[in-house]
Design goal:
This protein has 273 residues and is an alpha/beta fold. It folds into 2 domains: 9-99 and 212-272, Rossmann fold (3-Layer(aba) Sandwich), CATH 3.40.50.1860; 103-209, 3-Layer(aba) Sandwich (Rossmann fold). The protein has 12 helices and 10 strands. It has helices spanning 19-28, 50-66, 77-90, 103-109, 121-124, 127-136, 150-155, 162-177, 194-201, 211-224, 244-254, 266-272; strands spanning 9-13, 34-38, 71-74, 96-98, 114-119, 141-146, 182-185, 206-208, 236-240, 262-263. It has a 6-stranded parallel β-sheet with strand order 4-3-1-2-9-10, sandwiched between helices. α1 (19-28) packs across α10. The longest helix is centred in the first third of the chain and has 17 residues, at 50-66.
């Protein structure tokens, strides 16, 4: 597998939520080319089995590598929890950068000793999340909430309707009522609802995610591997497993008005797996 600094970085997520990570990566690495797969035809991942997510992640990663990706950015907490070790085992020479709920910085930030984590069911139930709590959460109280419906709202491009506000309230209020003064956004879709989440949580509550930290880790790994691109401004190429015409309005709302989207067929991933 030939890789060079001029090769693109491959990124995938269960849908468009990983754009919250990509925007940090773009700011951090303005000269890199990115290929982004939004697996919106199969979103959300949160309720699917770990075996299914692992197999799907391997297929998406294989497709990105077939397209010449020099590194893999898993911009999905649920896919990270289910598949990151399998990705690294399958492609040990490829830098694989993955997500992790911001439990460690949340523990450092809390003043009252109670941290709320808003994430998908798959992330909250994973051994990876349990290990995070065991390592960093022993001396504090961690309350969790599965943000059912939030991924779908972002995928629809519904960021501020009364229905979405009500949904956000139903997930945030239990964390606040439990005493949390820090809320961790443990899904890459959720930062796009951050204004509503912060409004519901109130000014005294910190809302944090790991997008910036992950983009810095991507930069470090590319530098270490001698794969950092230096040249003109980079580009982004977007693919989706949903019907492009359905996903395009939300992509343009989340990225920019000129963004375009190509179809990714199931057969493409089957060939890569």
């Amino acid at each position: 597998m030939a890789r060079s600094p001029d090769s693109p970085v491959g990124v995938f997520d269960s849908g468009l939520g990983g754009l919250s990570v990509l925007r940090h990566a773009r700011a951090q690495l303005p000269e890199e080319d990115f290929i982004y797969i939004a697996d919106s035809g199969f979103a959300p991942y949160g309720e699917r089995s770990a075996d299914w997510i692992r197999a799907r992640s391997l297929a998406l990663a294989g497709h990105l590598l077939d397209r010449g990706a020099k590194a893999l950015l898993v911009a999905c907490n649920t896919a990270t929890a289910a598949a990151a070790p399998a990705l690294r085992e399958r492609w040990p020479r490829v830098p694989v950068i993955a997500m992790e709920p911001a439990v460690k910085p949340a523990v450092a930030a809390t003043r009252c000793g109670t941290v709320g984590v808003l994430a998908t069911t798959g992330t909250l139930a994973s051994s990876r999340f349990a290990a995070l709590l065991d390592t960093f959460g022993r001396d504090i109280r961690v309350v969790t909430r599965s943000g059912s419906g939030l991924v779908e709202a972002v995928e629809r491009g519904d960021f501020a309707s009364d229905a979405t506000r009500s949904l956000v309230r139903s997930h945030v209020r239990p964390l606040i009522d439990a005493g949390a003064d820090v809320i961790v956004l443990g899904c890459t879709h959720y930062p796009f609802l951050r204004p509503l989440i912060q409004q519901e949580a109130g000014p005294g509550v910190s809302v944090i995610d790991t997008g910036l930290a992950v983009s810095r880790q991507l930069q470090r790994r590319l530098d270490e591997a001698g794969l950092r691109r230096h040249g003109p401004a980079g580009t982004e190429h977007f693919l989706t497993s949903a019907r492009p015409e359905h996903a395009l309005p939300a992509l343009r709302a989340l990225w920019h008005a000129a963004a375009d989207l190509s179809a990714l067929s199931l057969e493409d991933c089957d060939r890569a797996s």
